[in-house]
Write a structure and sequence with these properties.
The chain is an alpha/beta fold. The chain contains seven helices and ten strands. Helix 3 runs parallel beside helix 4. The radius of gyration is 22 Å and the shape is globular.
């Protein structure tokens, strides 16, 4: 019940943990402000302007290396680099994470239902709804990625039409876009299967394999567990698959080759 309350508060920009740590940092802010004013007395090189309180960073590390997104974005970008396709296309992945990684060493086309007007070297943005793609995108590329995207299809979160089978339609269209023998990199939340509306779906690993195996060979499976630790190229052992590799909300990362 408390978790549900926190989620509703977060929807309105209220994060109890952040409020607590900000209050903790307030005393340090006042102490340091007093010390800076003391040192600045009688000096004019840098006048003290409006306050800009940053209250929590003294309690944080220099970066979140336990982040699910950090691991998957870096891992898949490394795999694309190693496989060196003729053309790489992405559907909806994080622009400030995975897409930026790819654009640092090659060009990439990014399809997303949300418009993007910015022009960035090595990135071509295309607005498209992958629940309904035009014929000209069939057999379009030999390399395709979609990281933590398919779980959102059909939930209306990004202005897409509500569709209970949205993820099925999205996966079907991604398969059509990919050429035979092409590589497909997909990640999605894994755990006990459910919809947490309107944030995302969570898929069981067994269910995802049932969607993939008629059309793809699974070249590699990696996952980020509930604690944010990465496990690379693990065996799809039946017992572990049935238990979703111990995850309630992990990230499954599939690298596949289209065979049918």
């Amino acid at each position: 019940m408390l978790r549900k309350l926190f989620r509703y508060l977060a929807a309105f920009g209220i994060y109890p943990k952040l409020v607590t740590s900000s209050l903790k940092g307030w005393s340090f802010f006042l102490r340091d402000l007093h010390e800076l004013r003391r040192q600045a007395k009688g000096r004019s090189e840098f006048p003290l302007a409006d306050h800009y309180p940053i209250l929590r960073e003294r309690f944080e590390t220099n970066g979140d290396l336990k982040s699910h997104y950090f691991h998957e974005d870096l891992l898949v970008a490394q795999r694309v680099f190693e496989n060196n396709p003729l053309k790489h296309v992405d559907v909806g992945s994080r622009v400030d994470g995975f897409v930026a990684h790819i654009a640092s060493f090659r060009s990439i086309e990014v399809f997303d239902i949300r418009p993007q007007q910015a022009e960035v070297k090595n990135i071509r943005f295309v607005t498209a709804d992958f629940m309904d793609i035009p014929q000209e995108l069939h057999n379009y590329t030999d390399s395709l990625s979609s990281l933590n995207v398919i779980e959102h299809f059909g939930l209306g979160r990004y202005g897409d039409p509500v569709d209970y089978d949205g993820h099925i339609k999205g996966l079907d269209n991604m398969r059509k876009v990919l050429k035979l023998g092409g590589k497909f990199y997909l990640s999605t939340p894994i755990g006990p299967q459910r919809i947490e509306f309107n944030a995302h779906r969570v898929f069981s690993v067994d269910y995802m394999l049932s969607l993939f195996t008629p059309y793809y060979s699974i070249d590699r499976f990696s996952f980020v567990d509930d604690h944010g630790d990465l496990h690379t190229n693990v065996s799809l052992d039946a017992t572990k698959v049935a238990d979703n590799f111990g995850c309630r909300f992990g990230f499954g990362i599939f690298e596949m080759t289209k065979i049918s």
